[in-house]
Amino acid sequence: MDKQLLRKLAKRVKELRKLNGYTQDDLSACSNIARSTLGNIETASNDITFSKVNQLAKAFNMSLAEFLNF
Q1: Among residues 22, 18, 21, 44, which one has the least CA distance to residue 31?
Q2: Superfamily assignment of 3-67 in CATH?
């Protein structure tokens, strides 16, 4: 994935997590994504699979379109 796109997604996840009052541990439990993986997503350290993007959208109770609107 494009590094600039990864950074935008990382910023979006972190903003939504804080807006919802979640810690990384909370979001991990809601999304069924390991906390360490969430840390990597929020720092744009690793690529993210589409299934994980979908899991995050569901954890924030958003459609994919809403989630990816950045």
Answers
A1: 22
A2: lambda repressor-like DNA-binding domains (1.10.260.40)
